[in-house]
Amino acid sequence: MSYDLFLWSTKPVKADNLPDKSSWKFFKDESEFQTEHWQVCVSNSIKVNKLKSDDKKASSKVKKHLPKVAYRTTVWLEPLGAGKEGYKKIGEVARYLMQQTDGLIEDRSNGQIETLEKDPMVISIIKKLLGLENKIRFI
Question: How far apart are the C-alpha atoms of 74 and 86, rounded to whole Å?
Answer without folding.
Answer: 16
